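Running low. Invent one:
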Amino acid sequence: MLPANYPLTLQRGDSYAIDFIVKDNAGALVDLTGSNITFELVSGPVTISLDSDADTLTVDLAAAKISVRLTATQTDGLPPPSARQGARYELRRIITGGDEQTLLYGTVTVKDCIE
């Protein structure tokens, strides 16, 4: 399965609930059983890391749905536009046995409340 590229736009100080449905190249739901899912967002010197093993993101196995929740505090901590350098994120799957797979990645546009 090839990773998909999907850009995100976030507003500093807002909270977000972002759901991702994982499908294979044929459009079938991917069995995520036995997987640890990680989400990492990097913006300048700030990194937000979420992990299904640490219960900081959730996975619905039956629906192949990964739910990422970003709090207002987390997004408010992202650097202002003048300090941002190539904000990006990656959603990864670590499969029992050691295989790793990038599911989704992309750039992140972070906006201030008033621009």
In short: The longest helix spans residues 72-76.
